[in-house]
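Dear colleague,

Thank you for sharing your sequence with our group. We've completed the structure prediction you requested, and as agreed, I am returning the results in plain text so they can be pasted directly into your records. Please verify that the sequence below matches your submission; if there's any discrepancy, let me know and we will rerun it promptly.
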Amino acid sequence: MKSIESLIAEGTKQAIASLYSADTSKVSVTLQPTRKEFEGDFTIVVFPFTPLSKKNPEQTANDLGEYLKREVAEVENFNVIKGFLNLVIDKTYWLNFLKTNYNNTQYGILKPVEGANTIMLEYSSPNTNKPLHLGHIRNNLIGLSISRIMEAAGNKVIKVNLVNDRGIHICKSMLAWKKWGGGETPENSGMKGDHLIGKYYVLFDKHYKSELKELMAGGLSEEEAEKKSVLMGEAREMLRQWEAGDKETIDLWKTMNSWVYAGFDVTYKRLGVSFDKIYYESQTYLLGKEIVAEGLQKGVFFKKPDGSVWIDLTADGLDEKVLLRSDGTSVYMTQDLGTAVSRSAEFKFDGLVYIVGNEQEYHFKVLFLILKKLGYKWADGCFHLSYGMVELPEGKMKSREGTVVDADDLMDEMIKTAEETTKALGKFADFESEEANKLYNTIGLGALKYFILKVDPKKKMLFNPKESIDFEGNTGPFIQYTYARIFSLQRKAKELNYLAAINVTDLAKKEKALLIKVCELNKTVAEASATYSPALVANYVYELVKEYNQYYHEYPVIKEENADLRSLRIAISQLVGTAIHNGMWLLGIDVPERM
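Please find the predicted structure tokens below.
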């Protein structure tokens, strides 16, 4: 069934071509829901068409309205408010829309078609020197949701993770464990592996700051103290040993990383996050070094007297960027070059989207520019989805100081808060403990995910756990509760042998408005895919839920005595439930069948 947006857009272009003998190849028809104070379902902004019509906006709108009413069967009537053409869509269209979709459990979700774009999404990208924290949660949730949204819009998506498993920061944790660990392991300490390693990263920073303080007390400046630091020197030496393949260093690195990976896997599973492939910087940095060597030969890069390799981007409005240190060790840029080239060779993608915080905007400008200067044509398809940082009411988080909000602790807190809130409201009193615990988990994690995803990724956000768990307002639990209500209604209908069916020829105004809202899901998914914004889907689902709750309170469903009206309302409720379920699935959020 062709969407009403397509029918109107095609009809409008035909009208312009027919009425004004104009070329419509570059004409774009902007369609929006009609404002509630005016009569109509959809509104066309006609101002862009006046150069073609050579008439004022009101005359142009009247011309187009008359044509659409005459030539497009779905347009029942129209009215003009200044330069806005309000169209009333025939109820038959909405009844056919309902009939076509009320049993379609995949409504709103397309399958990738032959020739669909292949888009690679990189998200998560943790360091193996600390556990995942609140910032990683936002990153992972954005990545998971965008992967589902882009697939639902018809793309083929490859989800990848790049693990930062080498570098000076990793060596800091390794050195601290070697000095002060005393053989501590996840098994003998009872700590998750990633938590254990994070503990030593913080410990390194504590000893390092203490050493700097002592050196500065002896008269050195902060910069001089940093250069004189024995501890930092040992960390740099460990990095050199690692890159030289020293067996003892490599063995320690493998052991400690294995602890971290096991911990990450537990956290990813709880979040519902997965990847098609995981890349490791330890496996791509060597290719990066080869690329730098080639670029040096081609004159793209240059070498300084100390042996370090750089690129001069000042002519492009940027600055000079180091690619290899004077001791021959690589930097993040080196390994990112190797990773990007490796991915392109393996997957031949149409686009590569990096989901990384906005503090790395400059890094990706440089990366994409270097790739272009090296002659990689696919670099034009690279994009940095720069998302805002997550802050708490208490302020920013700092990993080295151990003031981050740990992802596992936050999920535990959300589930506990969900339990306390629901018990205080007297909900789930008749649930068995196992079922209740499952619900607390679903509600707590649903509240966390929805609260984060309803904010546009580009915006900085303030996360307040208690605000997110509320059964009223724009929250996950409010949406989950509405879905459970619809599922309960469907369960009762089956018990009473009341079937969903469309045996009517008319719709109440509220029913038509609700179907128009459901119809917006496909358009919303397409827009969310194009703009990389799960927030569009999240807020769409909330608006749909609000619309349905008003309808549910005004129109009886199971208690409706007229069998045809009852069947119609069961069908509408069923379609709304599917739209809610699939919309929340696109956000990575489960919806319970009973609450």
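Summary note from our side: DSSP finds 21 helices and 14 strands in the chain.

Kind regards,
the structure core
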